[in-house]
Amino acid sequence: MKPLVIDIYHNDPVESFQEIKDAGILAIIHKASEGSRRDQLYEHRRQAFVDLGFKWGAYHFFHGNGKAEADFFLSAAQPDENTLLALDWEPTPNGVTPSYAAARAFLERIEEKLGRKAVVYSGNVAKEQIKGRDAFFGGHRLWLAQYAAHWKTQASWDKPWLWQYGSEATKSRVQGIRGYCDVNNILDADEEEFFKNWVEPPPAPRTA
């Protein structure tokens, strides 16, 4: 599978922005913050990638303090109307798993502040924390982390919006980055339509 989107942070050594573009990557989702810390390379890389025509996104590695971390993330990411926002919902480095309620509070705060929804990035945590079909979470696009030949989502989603199918764990590489990095692709969506609706999905069709 050929990646179209990569997600990176300060410890991913970018050697050539142009080579990443030449490799066919069309969008970057970069860590803006984690807990109460900013990613110090976010702003510099944002300008460099956007100047080359990449779609841009920011993610926050969540530690479980919903509203406060959402506010901090927005301060760090400084999103404009072209910036995708994502909640990274997975166990923290010290083994704490943020709760359903905390993740919901984070997402509600983003929507309250911006009037649009963040993407939910998760793998096993969403499957463990969400029970059954959940209308709130199902109303957010899912960026699924699953390193396997086939994907499987929690019941709230029929399929992922974006699939992170490879990472350092699977020794995935992209030209222009030294070492391994996270790679992502879309499923059966039209590529042009996917990136046209990068920041937020089109309105749902009206029912009679």
Task: List key phrases describing it.
alpha/beta; single chain; 208 residues; 7 helices; TIM Barrel; 8-stranded mixed beta barrel
Give the SSE map.
Elements (H helix, E strand, L loop, with lengths): L4 E4 L8 H6 L4 E8 L2 E2 L3 H10 L3 E7 L4 H12 L5 E6 L11 H15 L4 E4 L1 H6 L5 H4 L3 E4 L16 E5 L15 E4 L5 H6 L12
Parallel strand pairs: 1-2, 2-4, 4-5, 5-6, 6-7, 7-8
Antiparallel strand pairs: 1-9, 2-3, 8-9
3D shape: globular
The poorly predicted ranges are none
Radius of gyration: 16 Å
* Average pLDDT metric: 95
Record field, number of beta strands: 9
Neighbour order of strands in the largest sheet: 1-2-4-5-6-7-8-9
- CATH fold descriptor: TIM Barrel
Helix count, DSSP H or I runs of 4 or more residues: 7
Question: Helix/strand-derived class?
Answer: alpha/beta
Helix amount, in percent?
25-40%
CATH architectural grouping? Alpha-Beta Barrel
Strand content: 15-25%
Main sheet: strands, sense, barrel: 8 strands, mixed, barrel
Domain count: the total is 1
Order of helices and strands: EHEEHEHEHEHHEEEH
Q: Kindly report the name of the CATH homologous superfamily.
A: Glycosidases
Distance between the termini: 40 Å
What's the CATH C level? Alpha Beta
Notes on the structure:
Helices cover 28% and strands 21% of the residues. Helix 3 (66-77) packs across helix 4. The protein has seven helices and nine strands, in the order βαββαβαβαβααβββα. The termini are far apart. The protein is of the alpha/beta class. Helix 3 (66-77) links the parallel strand 4 (55-61) and strand 5 (83-88). Strands 1-2-4-5-6-7-8-9 form an eight-stranded mixed beta barrel. It has one domain: Alpha-Beta Barrel (TIM Barrel).
